[in-house]
Amino acid sequence: IVKALRFRLPHRPFLRPAWMIRIGLFLYDHIGKRVTLPSSHMVNLRKSGIFKKDIKKGFEYSDCWADDARLVLMNIMAAKQKGAEVRNYCRVVSAENKEGLWHVTILNEITGERFSRKSKALVNAAGPWVKQFFDDGLQEVSPRNICLVKGSHIVVPKIHDEEYAYILQNSDDRIVFVIPYLDDFSIVGTTDVKFKGDPRRVEISTEEVDYLIEVVNEHFVKQISKDEIVWSYSGVRPLCDDESDSPQAITRDYTLELQHESGKAPLLSIFGGKLTTYRKLAETAMTHLAPFFPSLGGKWTMHDVLPGGDFNCSREQLAKNLLHNYPWLGIKTAKRYINQYGTRAWMLLEDVLSESDMGNVLGEGVYAREIDYLIKHEFVKTVEDVLWRRTKLGLYLIEEHQQAIDKYIQTKLLVNIEPLNG
Ligand SMILES: Cc1cc2nc3c(=O)[nH]c(=O)nc-3n(C[C@H](O)[C@H](O)[C@H](O)COP(=O)(O)OP(=O)(O)OC[C@H]3O[C@@H](n4cnc5c(N)ncnc54)[C@H](O)[C@@H]3O)c2cc1C
């Protein structure tokens, strides 16, 4: 779920001088104690022929690409393996601190049922809702303010055939990435727009679409238009409010606030943060909680692998191994399984002797067996979970097949209701 990727920065002299970028990349290469990834260097961009004539050279450096949705999911799966109780679509509506424990009330947003749990500590990691949870769930004043900044992406058929991600500098001092996506597409993003309202209702605006298209069209020979957008998505960054004037200037750093009164259970709240630093943030969170849990062990996450990540060969080799065991899968599905599930693909296919054991074909390359696996092991409750959160099949499947998956999930979940207590 994390891949090394070379990023190329086309140089436009009227924006930033080359010496400044070179110094920046020198520091980037050396401060980060780069071990495995290749270093940065200058590149001739004329050769590729994909850029407009005024873009002649650029810089290349290493970074990584991550499947954010699956990264989050795999951490949740790892927590479950270690004994956590996981409840999807369940919202903590209130929490009361009494008799040395948190008494937490939870609402199942699908069934409408409420249930409760007790805990020795509470972590408010509600992201964009961290402050709202203080207001509504705890009815207390939040120790910090949060600034919500919307970011949107568009997905279009691939703009170029190169294996590089491009980082486009814009005259408003912002950058926009054009990243190769799932063999067939390019992701273009992101934007920075201050956001007010319910983060659940966030969506891309016409201005953001126009902005992203304009930045791409200023650089590439191939021009894109609104009609080519196959998907767009938006998110809200929960940033620590440092009273900066512009959304892109607000710090991307995080702050943890521990609140604890004698005889009461502690509350740890997380303001801000990035995916890149999530493991470090989690370690800091545990350091804050350690005094309340004397038997807690030391740090261990650095060398632990996430579920499905226990392999030492390339993912191409792993796909070949899977295809060798299950030749009827076809290389496309074998690759998709490996990219999504890693070695857990073998768990999905456990006891499968022939294609007929996979159940009905619900869409191209989608067997009922995969949906069963997703319901059983990856907390799937809705068709959107399958199409956009666990996989990106939504980009490929026609409406009729999406409906077939929806119907299948509904039928399966009716006979498989989880008990709330116990
Ligand atoms: C457009 C965009 C681009 C980004 N790009 C990058 C990037 O390139 N690199 C990077 O490192 N980071 C990036 N980020 C930041 C990264 O996505 C966030 O830092 C990260 O998602 C924050 O994680 P979180 O767990 O704190 O919050 P979230 O991911 O928002 O998770 C909070 C969760 O809490 C749940 N929740 C809320 N209230 C309750 C409640 N009462 N009860 C139960 N659950 C609740 C929500 O449903 C949600 O699932 C980007 C963010 C955006 C929006």
From TrEMBL:
UniProt entry keywords in alphabetical sequence: FAD, Flavoprotein, Oxidoreductase
This protein's record includes keyword Flavoprotein: yes
A biological process term (GO) from this entry: glycerol-3-phosphate catabolic process
Entry's EC annotation: 1.1.5.3
Annotated Alpha-glycerophosphate oxidase C-terminal domain residues: 302-409
Top EC category: oxidoreductase
InterPro entries given in the database record: DAO_C (IPR031656), DAO_C_sf (IPR038299), FAD-dep_OxRdtase (IPR006076), FAD/NAD-bd_sf (IPR036188), G3P_DH_FAD-dep (IPR000447)
GO molecular function terms noted in the UniProt entry: glycerol-3-phosphate dehydrogenase (quinone) activity
Cofactor(s) for this UniProt protein: FAD
Pfam families: DAO, DAO_C
Domain FAD dependent oxidoreductase positions: 52-278
Family named by the database record: Belongs to the FAD-dependent glycerol-3-phosphate dehydrogenase family.
Annotated protein name in UniProt: glycerol-3-phosphate dehydrogenase
Species per Swiss-Prot/TrEMBL record: Hirondellea gigas
Organism lineage string: Eukaryota, Metazoa, Ecdysozoa, Arthropoda, Crustacea
